[in-house]
Specification:
The complex is a heterodimer.
Chain A: E1 10-19, E2 22-32, E3 36-42, H1 48-55, E4 63-68, E5 71-73, H2 78-84, E6 86-89, H3 101-106, E7 112-113, E8 116-117, H4 119-132, H5 148-161, E9 166-170, H6 178-193, E10 197-201, H7 205-211, E11 214-219, E12 222-228, H8 234-242, E13 262-271, E14 275-283, E15 287-291, H9 298-306, E16 313-318, E17 321-323, H10 328-333, E18 336-339, H11 343-347, H12 354-366, H13 374-387, H14 404-416, E19 422-426, H15 434-449, E20 459-463, H16 467-473, E21 476-481, E22 484-490, H17 496-504
Chain B: H1 6-9, H2 17-37, H3 44-54, H4 58-74, E1 82-84, E2 87-89, H5 91-114, H6 122-138, H7 143-167, H8 172-191, E3 195-197, H9 205-208, E4 210-211, E5 214-215, H10 216-234, H11 237-246, H12 248-253, H13 258-284, E6 286-288, H14 296-306, H15 318-337, H16 342-360, H17 362-376
Antiparallel strand pairs in B: 1-2, 3-6, 4-5
Helix pairs in contact in B: 2-3, 4-15, 5-10, 5-13, 5-14, 5-15, 6-7, 6-8, 6-13, 7-8, 7-13, 14-15, 15-16
Classes of the chains: A alpha/beta, B mainly alpha.
Chain lengths: 513, 383
């Protein structure tokens, strides 16, 4: 493909990589030019992460070649890759929160003077580095004091500090709010203009088009193609990611009626530092969307409802009965279920099998003395693997070996199995691909809609920071701002602009304050 | 500027100790599943060998067998088992009998370690239970009452540890350290600093009696081990303990009573230690508050580790722990029988334990594998 006639900085060709039971890459390739922002797109399990890990030396490829500036390289460790000029910033910031910002920037490579660490130079250089990223913070303060967005910037600054020629950003925006994303993009563009090659992995289509010059699409472990961002339409891109035969399941039209009975009602539910007194009600058979900026109290609301954190004040009424949950166990007994946004830390138990992960909540509710017989566990797990299309070699495979989307589906199965009255989904589609997203939301909507008696239908509280997704899936929408409910919108009055206004705080409906 | 930058590059690895052991356990598991899933691709015996190779008991059992073979070479009498006074007699039987208290303690320790905990108060509980039982028997109480009282004290000890760890969320090693110090002190107070000798012969049965030709203590260990295995397997406790050890946060959100489970494991460890104390007192026909079960906790931790469990939690192998305890006792007996001077005794023991631990280290095995593969399969066959 053409690119200013110059030679690419980094070229991967015919990369093969297999794991027990899975062939992750079959002849994948990638070309990166200096002075470009290059988006790497693909569904979950398409092989993006594996490809990046091959570049950064984490996995040796089974076959294929990597060349940097025309010369072949064989990075055997991430340190080696970094020495070659390939730096990576991952989705989860992994610096040392207890150390100062400056120490984090220089850890392992402290500037020395007379055998001692030259703190003065280190601080000065840190300020310079961060200033380049438009960041003016106290470099001596511990990193933990700053928001995730700032920490991410520090991680990038650290990568730059090693004078990288190739910068790989693996889903850097998934936990950032809009302002932080814009900041990141400014920095990315500046680095590009300085001649750096940036590989940008994300699931957000908007962001791909906002910032990237070229796009490489991967599918099923292969490179599907390389495109100019300006010449590839959105729909085309999604089709290339999903594959030719997959249906384009946009906008599920069959929204269920929301005139069911109230499943859950809160009055003045509050917790200091987490949520101002909140009233909400959720009716059976409906999807109530909950949206707001990062830190607006979405997850806090979910955790209070589920008893993961104890409320300071207020009541929760489930099916007309008052509760004060002091543990998730009580909430589960009352018919609640909660898929946490942090799949790895709060959801999946990675070393346990898919089967064990699926039956865990049901078994916990039944109690330890009434074990679900192994035969029945297998039947349950196989049933859900089929129904939700979970891609796993076996139900006894440790769940940690599955891709993010499949882990999420298994966790969904865990909760559906308990037949909850209210299912709380906190960012169920974070970090998973378009297709799995669709499948998960379709299944959720189907479950809301089914059930003979309307009053017995499941209700869903759906939390997501992707506004189009919330708008498409919700029957009603509750907007949070500054840890306070600031408006509830019926389906008819929903559109992106009104909701954005409410989220941003100008012109929103103040009746709930 | 070419030094190793460790921070950013360590990112794709698990973020903290809580999850770090989990992925490392996975590749082995996958291989096993892959084999199980496609038995037709390989001959049956190969698949069987593959599963055997992955079996957690393989290494500890192999270590024990090697130790016993060494004995066979150097001590011809070692393997001789005779029938004397209607029961089996010989070094092997002796090892089983002497290992019994440690085996019991290791069973309890296995579950505590599976919950990411540790219990260093085992020896102190042994001393307390032994002292209580000896005092009560000497005071003319029936044996059963004395045993129940001693086990009751052990339950209290376990509950104390459990409250500190599960309720107050103290770090397990600190929480149980309190009882490690206080328990032995209390035992010494009760015994008035003296060794309490017991003369009632029924007291000796547990530690040195025989039933159907085998030591009574061995039967007790087998009964406890069997009951525990069945309990963990037939109920959901096994799954729950693993889940809590692997990921306590996710377990709580899935509705598990994490605190109660952890509490229960410490109580169980307490009872096991208490029963071990009864065996030890019975065997030496006295309760020695100063020395009974001294450092038994460390042997128990070692036994669990030799049995293939990880101190990071989430795994337990009861059979492995029992084999681990047997390894330790076999080693001790071997060293004594070989006539190794007492002053080198500890060093030899440490050396053997070191070798065993190295054999079990997956890191070491990976290093060996890399070393073996390097000349055989040069990488980079590019097409």
């Amino acid at each position: 493909m053409r690119h200013n006639g110059s030679a690419p900085v980094l070229v991967l060709e015919g990369i093969h990589k297999g794991f027990p039971g899975v062939q992750a890459l079959t002849g994948a390739g990638l070309r990166l030019f200096s002075g470009e922002i290059h988006a790497l797109m693909g569904q979950n399990g398409a092989g993006k992460s594996t490809l990046i890990k091959v570049v950064t030396g984490l996995y040796p490829p089974d076959a294929g070649s990597i060349s940097l500036h025309g010369g072949p390289i064989e990075p055997r460790s991430t340190a080696q890759a970094q020495d070659l000029g390939i730096s990576t910033v991952y989705q989860e910031v992994n610096l040392c929160p207890n150390l100062s910002v400056a120490e984090n920037l220089f850890i392992g490579r402290y500037p020395k003077r007379l055998g001692q660490i030259d703190w003065k130079r280190m601080r000065a250089r840190s300020r310079e580095l961060l200033a380049e990223l438009e960041l003016d913070i106290d470099v001596e303060a511990p990193l933990a004091r700053y928001s995730l967005a700032v920490q991410q910037m520090v991680a990038i600054a650290r990568a730059l500090n090693i004078s990288a020629q190739v910068l790989i950003l693996d889903e850097p925006t998934s936990s950032l709010d809009e302002a932080a994303v814009q900041h990141l993009f400014r920095v990315m563009r500046r680095l590009r203009d300085q001649g750096m090659a940036i590989l940008f992995v994300t699931h957000f289509l908007d962001q791909v088009y906002a910032v990237s010059d070229r796009i490489t699409v991967m599918r099923n472990g292969r490179t599907e193609g390389e495109y100019w961002a300006a010449e590839l339409g959105r729909l085309e891109l999604v089709q290339k990611m999903v594959g030719p035969h997959a249906a384009q399941g946009q906008a599920s039209g069959d929204h269920c009626s929301s005139n069911g009975t109230t499943v859950l009602r809160t009055q003045g539910l509050a917790r200091r530092g987490a949520l101002h007194p909140m009233d909400m009600d959720i009716r059976s058979g409906e999807v109530l969307g909950l949206c707001g900026l990062l830190g607006s109290g979405r997850t806090e609301t979910a955790r209070l409802l589920f008893g993961a954190d104890a409320a300071d004040a207020g009541d929760i009424e489930v099916n007309g009965r008052r509760h004060r949950f002091s543990s998730p166990r009580q909430a589960i007994a009352a018919g609640l279920a909660f898929c946490s946004e942090d799949r790895k830390l709060e959801g999946a138990i990675l070393a346990l099998s898919v089967r064990e992960n699926i039956v865990l909540a049901l078994q916990a509710r039944q109690g330890w003395w009434r074990a679900i017989p192994l035969k029945r566990q297998r039947a349950i797990a196989e049933d859900y693997v089929r129904r939700l299309g979970i891609k796993t070699p076996d139900i006894n495979t440790p769940i940690g070996l599955l891709s993010g989307g499949n882990q999420q589906k298994a966790l969904l199965a865990r909760w559906l199995l308990t037949q909850p009255r209210l299912l709380i989904l906190d960012e169920p589609t974070r970090g998973i691909d378009v297709r799995a997203k669709e499948e998960i939301m379709t299944e959720v909507r189907r479950l809301c809609a089914e059930g003979a008696e309307q009053d017995r239908r499941m209700a869903v509280l759906f939390i997501s920071s992707e506004l189009p997704e919330v708008l498409r899936c919700s029957d009603r929408l509750m907007v949070l701002r500054d840890r306070r409910a600031c408006g509830v919108y019926e389906r008819g009055e929903l559109n992106e602009d009104t909701v954005l206004e409410a989220i941003a705080g100008d012109g929103g409906d103040p009746t709930r304050d | 500027m070419a030094e190793t930058p460790p921070v950013i590059e360590s990112l794709p690895l698990p973020k903290d100790g809580r999850t770090s052991h989990a992925p490392s356990a996975m590749p082995a598991a996958t291989t096993a599943t892959a084999l199980a899933a496609h038995p037709s691709q390989r001959p049956a015996w190969q698949a069987w060998l593959g599963t055997l190779h992955e079996h957690p008991l393989l290494r500890p059992v192999l270590a024990l067998v090697i130790l016993l073979l060494v004995d066979l070479v150097f001590l011809p009498d070692f393997w001789q088992v005779q029938i004397r006074d209607g029961h089996l007699y010989g070094p092997l039987i002796d090892i089983l009998n002497r290992a019994a208290p440690l085996m019991l303690a290791s069973l309890g320790m296995s579950l505590v370690i599976a919950t990411r905990g540790i219990d260093v108060s085992v020896g102190a509980v042994v001393a307390m239970s032994a002292t209580v039982a000896a005092l009560m028997v000497n005071a003319g109480q029936p044996l059963l009452v004395a045993y129940l009282a001693a086990l009751g004290v052990a339950v209290l000890c376990g509950a104390w540890n459990g409250v500190l760890v599960a309720g107050l969320k103290l770090q397990p090693i600190i929480a149980t350290l309190i009882l490690m110090v206080a328990g032995r002190g209390l035992a010494q107070l009760m015994a008035d600093g003296q060794i309490i000798t017991v003369y009632q012969s029924s007291f000796f049965v547990l530690g040195s009696g025989y039933l159907l030709g085998l030591p009574v203590s061995l039967w007790v260990v087998l009964a406890v081990a069997l009951a525990t295995t069945q309990l963990l397997r037939r109920t959901a406790l096994g799954l729950f303990i693993q889940a809590v050890g692997l990921n306590p946060v996710a377990s709580r959100l899935a509705g598990l009573r994490t605190a109660t489970l952890i509490f229960g494991c410490y109580v169980f460890a307490g009872v096991c230690a208490g029963a071990a104390g009864l065996m030890i007192a019975s065997n030496i026909k006295s309760a020695d508050a100063n020395n009974a079960g001294l450092l038994l906790e460390l042997d128990a931790i070692l036994a669990v580790t030799l049995g293939g469990a990880s101190l990071a939690g989430g795994k337990y192998h009861l059979a492995g722990s029992l084999v681990g305890a047997l390894i330790i006792q076999t080693l001790t007996t071997t060293i004594y029988s070989l006539g190794v001077p007492p002053e080198v005794n500890m060093v030899v023991k440490a050396l053997v334990v070191f070798l065993l631990c190295i054999l079990q280290s997956s890191e070491w095995r990976a290093m060996l594998r890399r070393w073996r593969q390097r000349p055989a399969a040069p990488r980079g066959d590019r097409s």
